[in-house]
Please model this.
Amino acid sequence: MTMDNNTPAPQPLAPTPDYSAFLQQKLATQPHNVMSHVLGHEQIWVKRAGAPHGMGRYRAMAVLAGLLRLPVLAPVPNPGGPVAIATEVRRLQDLAARGVRVPEVLAVRDNGFAMRHLGRVGEEAHSLGNAIDRTLRANDPAAVLSLWQQGLDALTHVHRQGTCLSQAFARNMVRDPSGAVVCIDFEDDPAAVLPLPLCHVRDALCYAHSTALYLQESGRWPEARARWAAWVAQGSAEMQAHLAVSIRRMGWMQYLPASRRLGRDLQRVRAAYDLLVS
Model:
């Protein structure tokens, strides 16, 4: 076959970056444990193992969970160090294999790993929590509800794949340039210490705690509560039973004051309880 003189010659493919060598270099030289770098035409995050964590606070949490008779609050240890890196890599790869949107792992070593940036080069990828907060400040209650529903739909997808998140707060859900929700932060594995239905309840509690106050302040509270009730109803029977028991044992939260003067943290807890009992 001959080529026309006006036909441009095929361009050679760009070589695949050596992510492993890049990771090794950055792990040895970057001043912080988590940093972003530009390699060629892409942005990459390198996460290096930090110091191992003490277990004292987890023992205290276990005692509290026992006293409150709330197994869903049982601690999920994050030992830190190389173990946390191995856990996060394993969870990211497992979730990706199940069709859950998570950062792409590019290279792995014992003391760290590299993953692809979720946004465009040089642009921050904003969390779902930040996006909801911005729309609330812009006085766009319909957008608040829509964004919140995105996170709820992401949880539905994760649970239907037979798995769970680690800490399902809205800050750990990031919107990529297409607007899709990508889940991050997997240094611990709840399913290693809790039955899966309890892990799903744990996800629900985390998401409610991090978003309910936005819903109250948006003025779309009745619709949000209806959507929450519908979401719970489509969960497994075991998840619904564990959630119902947990809510009953958290009944004391209904007596928490909702006054802004007492701080946002207390308001978040009270708003979350009001959503949970929908």
Summary: Residues 196-218 form the longest helix (23 residues). The CA atoms of residues 196 and 209 lie 20 Å apart. The mean pLDDT is 93. DSSP finds nine helices and six strands in the chain.
